[in-house]
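Annotated sample (chain length 263).
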Amino acid sequence: MDNGHRVGSTEVLVVVPTLGTRPDWLQECVTSIGSQEGVSPRIRIVCPSGTVTLKEFSVNRVEIIEYDKRGLAAAIREGFANYDGEFITWLGDDDKLQPGSLQAVVEALKSSPQASFAYGRTRYIAASGSTIGVTRPGRLAAHYLTVGKDFVPQPGSVIRRSAYEAVGGIDVDLANAMDLDLFIRLQRYGASVYVPRELSCYRLHESSITVTKGDKDEGELVRLRYLSKTLRSSYRVWRPVTRILDRVWDVSNRRLPSPSAPR
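Output written by the structure step:
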Protein backbone atom coordinates (compact mmCIF):
# COMPACT_ATOMS: atom_id res chain seq x y z
CA MET A 1 0.00 0.00 0.00
CA ASP A 2 2.75 2.41 -0.94
CA ASN A 3 0.96 4.23 -3.74
CA GLY A 4 -0.08 7.20 -1.62
CA HIS A 5 3.24 9.03 -1.65
CA ARG A 6 2.72 12.71 -2.42
CA VAL A 7 5.29 13.86 -4.94
CA GLY A 8 7.47 16.69 -3.66
CA SER A 9 6.20 16.52 -0.08
CA THR A 10 8.29 15.62 2.94
CA GLU A 11 7.98 12.11 4.30
CA VAL A 12 7.40 11.62 8.03
CA LEU A 13 7.60 8.19 9.63
CA VAL A 14 4.95 7.65 12.31
CA VAL A 15 5.30 4.48 14.38
CA VAL A 16 2.15 3.21 16.07
CA PRO A 17 2.87 0.59 18.74
CA THR A 18 -0.21 -1.49 19.61
CA LEU A 19 -1.30 -4.76 21.15
CA GLY A 20 -4.23 -4.84 18.74
CA THR A 21 -6.76 -4.84 21.57
CA ARG A 22 -8.31 -1.43 20.78
CA PRO A 23 -9.25 -1.70 17.09
CA ASP A 24 -11.67 1.25 17.01
CA TRP A 25 -9.16 3.64 18.55
CA LEU A 26 -6.38 2.25 16.37
CA GLN A 27 -8.52 2.93 13.32
CA GLU A 28 -9.05 6.54 14.44
CA CYS A 29 -5.34 6.92 15.13
CA VAL A 30 -4.21 5.60 11.74
CA THR A 31 -6.85 7.61 9.89
CA SER A 32 -5.72 10.82 11.61
CA ILE A 33 -2.16 10.15 10.41
CA GLY A 34 -3.03 9.05 6.90
CA SER A 35 -5.22 12.09 6.28
CA GLN A 36 -2.45 14.60 7.04
CA GLU A 37 -1.97 17.10 4.21
CA GLY A 38 1.20 18.86 3.09
CA VAL A 39 3.44 15.90 4.01
CA SER A 40 3.68 12.20 3.13
CA PRO A 41 3.08 10.19 6.30
CA ARG A 42 4.53 6.70 6.35
CA ILE A 43 2.88 4.54 9.01
CA ARG A 44 4.48 1.55 10.69
CA ILE A 45 2.19 -0.36 13.02
CA VAL A 46 4.24 -2.47 15.44
CA CYS A 47 2.20 -5.26 17.00
CA PRO A 48 2.35 -8.86 18.25
CA SER A 49 2.09 -11.51 15.53
CA GLY A 50 -1.38 -12.04 14.12
CA THR A 51 -3.10 -9.17 15.94
CA VAL A 52 -3.43 -6.56 13.15
CA THR A 53 -3.79 -6.91 9.37
CA LEU A 54 -3.41 -4.41 6.54
CA LYS A 55 -6.93 -5.03 5.24
CA GLU A 56 -8.28 -3.24 8.31
CA PHE A 57 -7.10 0.15 7.01
CA SER A 58 -8.19 2.25 4.06
CA VAL A 59 -5.31 4.77 4.18
CA ASN A 60 -2.15 4.40 2.08
CA ARG A 61 1.44 3.75 3.10
CA VAL A 62 0.72 1.53 6.07
CA GLU A 63 2.98 -1.39 6.93
CA ILE A 64 2.73 -3.98 9.68
CA ILE A 65 5.78 -4.95 11.70
CA GLU A 66 5.15 -8.01 13.83
CA TYR A 67 7.22 -7.81 16.98
CA ASP A 68 6.71 -10.17 19.90
CA LYS A 69 9.18 -8.84 22.45
CA ARG A 70 7.72 -7.09 25.48
CA GLY A 71 7.87 -3.37 26.15
CA LEU A 72 6.47 -0.22 24.57
CA ALA A 73 9.87 1.42 24.14
CA ALA A 74 11.27 -1.69 22.45
CA ALA A 75 8.37 -1.69 20.00
CA ILE A 76 8.94 1.97 19.17
CA ARG A 77 12.65 1.39 18.66
CA GLU A 78 11.86 -1.51 16.34
CA GLY A 79 9.54 0.72 14.34
CA PHE A 80 12.27 3.31 13.81
CA ALA A 81 14.85 0.73 12.73
CA ASN A 82 16.12 0.71 9.14
CA TYR A 83 14.60 4.06 8.28
CA ASP A 84 16.71 6.76 6.62
CA GLY A 85 14.20 9.60 6.28
CA GLU A 86 14.64 12.93 8.06
CA PHE A 87 11.64 13.05 10.41
CA ILE A 88 10.23 10.46 12.83
CA THR A 89 7.71 10.22 15.64
CA TRP A 90 5.38 7.77 17.34
CA LEU A 91 1.74 7.91 18.34
CA GLY A 92 -0.15 5.73 20.79
CA ASP A 93 -2.95 3.66 19.30
CA ASP A 94 -5.41 5.53 21.53
CA ASP A 95 -4.29 9.01 20.43
CA LYS A 96 -4.88 11.11 17.31
CA LEU A 97 -3.21 13.87 15.30
CA GLN A 98 -5.05 17.10 14.57
CA PRO A 99 -5.43 18.16 10.91
CA GLY A 100 -2.29 19.85 9.58
CA SER A 101 -0.24 18.75 12.58
CA LEU A 102 2.68 17.07 10.80
CA GLN A 103 3.07 19.84 8.23
CA ALA A 104 3.17 22.52 10.95
CA VAL A 105 5.83 20.69 12.95
CA VAL A 106 7.96 19.76 9.94
CA GLU A 107 7.93 23.36 8.74
CA ALA A 108 9.05 24.49 12.20
CA LEU A 109 11.96 22.04 12.14
CA LYS A 110 12.95 23.06 8.62
CA SER A 111 13.02 26.69 9.78
CA SER A 112 15.30 25.71 12.68
CA PRO A 113 17.83 23.28 11.18
CA GLN A 114 19.76 22.97 14.46
CA ALA A 115 16.71 21.85 16.43
CA SER A 116 16.43 18.18 17.36
CA PHE A 117 12.67 18.03 17.91
CA ALA A 118 9.50 20.12 17.91
CA TYR A 119 6.34 19.93 19.99
CA GLY A 120 3.14 21.86 20.58
CA ARG A 121 -0.22 21.82 22.31
CA THR A 122 -2.40 18.78 22.89
CA ARG A 123 -6.10 18.27 23.57
CA TYR A 124 -6.88 15.87 26.41
CA ILE A 125 -9.90 13.73 25.57
CA ALA A 126 -11.89 11.13 27.48
CA ALA A 127 -12.43 7.55 26.33
CA SER A 128 -15.59 8.76 24.59
CA GLY A 129 -13.65 11.41 22.68
CA SER A 130 -15.13 14.36 24.58
CA THR A 131 -12.74 17.19 25.45
CA ILE A 132 -11.29 17.39 28.94
CA GLY A 133 -9.00 20.33 28.26
CA VAL A 134 -6.10 21.64 26.20
CA THR A 135 -2.58 22.00 27.49
CA ARG A 136 -0.38 24.87 26.28
CA PRO A 137 3.12 23.99 27.49
CA GLY A 138 5.04 26.91 25.97
CA ARG A 139 8.73 27.17 25.13
CA LEU A 140 9.88 26.82 28.74
CA ALA A 141 8.49 23.29 29.08
CA ALA A 142 11.49 21.72 27.32
CA HIS A 143 13.90 23.55 29.65
CA TYR A 144 11.95 22.44 32.73
CA LEU A 145 12.22 18.72 32.00
CA THR A 146 15.11 18.00 34.38
CA VAL A 147 13.76 19.88 37.40
CA GLY A 148 10.01 19.23 37.37
CA LYS A 149 7.03 17.62 35.71
CA ASP A 150 7.22 16.72 32.03
CA PHE A 151 4.90 19.21 30.29
CA VAL A 152 6.18 18.42 26.78
CA PRO A 153 3.44 16.44 24.99
CA GLN A 154 4.85 13.50 23.10
CA PRO A 155 1.77 13.09 20.86
CA GLY A 156 2.17 15.52 17.98
CA SER A 157 5.90 15.98 18.46
CA VAL A 158 8.35 15.21 15.64
CA ILE A 159 12.02 14.27 16.01
CA ARG A 160 14.88 14.78 13.60
CA ARG A 161 16.15 11.28 12.92
CA SER A 162 19.82 12.27 12.89
CA ALA A 163 19.44 13.74 16.38
CA TYR A 164 17.59 10.64 17.59
CA GLU A 165 20.45 8.44 16.44
CA ALA A 166 23.09 10.81 17.78
CA VAL A 167 21.70 10.59 21.34
CA GLY A 168 21.39 6.81 21.22
CA GLY A 169 17.67 6.44 20.54
CA ILE A 170 14.93 5.48 22.94
CA ASP A 171 15.80 3.67 26.18
CA VAL A 172 14.11 0.26 26.00
CA ASP A 173 14.59 -0.32 29.74
CA LEU A 174 12.04 2.38 30.59
CA ALA A 175 8.34 1.56 30.82
CA ASN A 176 6.62 4.95 31.25
CA ALA A 177 9.18 7.75 31.05
CA MET A 178 10.92 6.89 27.79
CA ASP A 179 9.69 10.11 26.18
CA LEU A 180 10.94 12.26 29.07
CA ASP A 181 14.34 10.58 28.94
CA LEU A 182 14.59 11.00 25.16
CA PHE A 183 13.45 14.63 25.19
CA ILE A 184 16.02 15.56 27.83
CA ARG A 185 18.82 14.08 25.73
CA LEU A 186 17.50 15.68 22.54
CA GLN A 187 17.13 19.08 24.21
CA ARG A 188 20.77 18.93 25.29
CA TYR A 189 21.87 17.83 21.84
CA GLY A 190 20.08 20.33 19.65
CA ALA A 191 17.41 22.22 21.59
CA SER A 192 13.74 22.24 20.59
CA VAL A 193 11.09 24.24 18.79
CA TYR A 194 7.67 25.04 20.24
CA VAL A 195 4.77 25.17 17.79
CA PRO A 196 1.99 27.31 19.35
CA ARG A 197 -0.96 25.37 17.98
CA GLU A 198 -2.92 22.24 18.77
CA LEU A 199 -1.20 19.18 17.30
CA SER A 200 -2.80 16.12 18.85
CA CYS A 201 -5.45 14.51 20.99
CA TYR A 202 -4.23 12.54 24.00
CA ARG A 203 -6.80 10.09 25.33
CA LEU A 204 -7.07 9.67 29.09
CA HIS A 205 -8.71 6.38 30.10
CA GLU A 206 -8.36 3.68 32.71
CA SER A 207 -5.53 1.86 30.93
CA SER A 208 -3.52 4.84 29.64
CA ILE A 209 0.05 5.15 30.91
CA THR A 210 -0.64 8.48 32.61
CA VAL A 211 -3.41 6.88 34.68
CA THR A 212 -1.81 3.50 35.44
CA LYS A 213 1.81 4.33 36.26
CA GLY A 214 1.02 5.54 39.81
CA ASP A 215 3.92 4.92 42.21
CA LYS A 216 5.82 3.22 39.35
CA ASP A 217 6.38 6.59 37.69
CA GLU A 218 9.98 6.61 36.43
CA GLY A 219 10.10 10.38 36.00
CA GLU A 220 12.03 11.19 39.16
CA LEU A 221 14.67 8.51 38.46
CA VAL A 222 15.10 9.77 34.91
CA ARG A 223 15.59 13.38 36.05
CA LEU A 224 18.23 12.34 38.55
CA ARG A 225 20.25 10.81 35.70
CA TYR A 226 20.85 14.21 34.16
CA LEU A 227 21.31 16.51 37.14
CA SER A 228 24.70 17.84 38.10
CA LYS A 229 26.30 16.43 41.24
CA THR A 230 25.42 19.59 43.14
CA LEU A 231 21.75 19.58 42.14
CA ARG A 232 21.49 15.86 42.80
CA SER A 233 22.86 16.20 46.31
CA SER A 234 20.34 18.93 47.16
CA TYR A 235 17.42 17.31 45.31
CA ARG A 236 15.38 16.66 48.46
CA VAL A 237 15.64 20.32 49.37
CA TRP A 238 14.53 21.99 46.13
CA ARG A 239 12.30 19.33 44.55
CA PRO A 240 9.34 20.02 46.94
CA VAL A 241 9.44 23.61 45.72
CA THR A 242 9.28 22.64 42.06
CA ARG A 243 6.43 20.23 42.86
CA ILE A 244 4.40 23.26 43.94
CA LEU A 245 5.38 24.94 40.69
CA ASP A 246 4.32 21.76 38.85
CA ARG A 247 0.78 22.07 40.22
CA VAL A 248 0.53 25.78 39.50
CA TRP A 249 1.84 25.38 35.95
CA ASP A 250 -0.39 22.37 35.32
CA VAL A 251 -3.55 24.28 36.25
CA SER A 252 -2.58 27.47 34.45
CA ASN A 253 -1.78 25.71 31.18
CA ARG A 254 -4.86 23.50 30.93
CA ARG A 255 -7.99 25.19 29.62
CA LEU A 256 -11.36 24.21 28.26
CA PRO A 257 -11.51 25.72 24.77
CA SER A 258 -14.59 26.33 22.69
CA PRO A 259 -15.44 23.26 20.55
CA SER A 260 -15.44 25.59 17.56
CA ALA A 261 -11.80 26.53 18.16
CA PRO A 262 -9.79 23.34 17.55
CA ARG A 263 -6.46 25.16 17.63
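Annotation: The longest strand covers residues 192-203.
Annotation: The radius of gyration is 18 Å.
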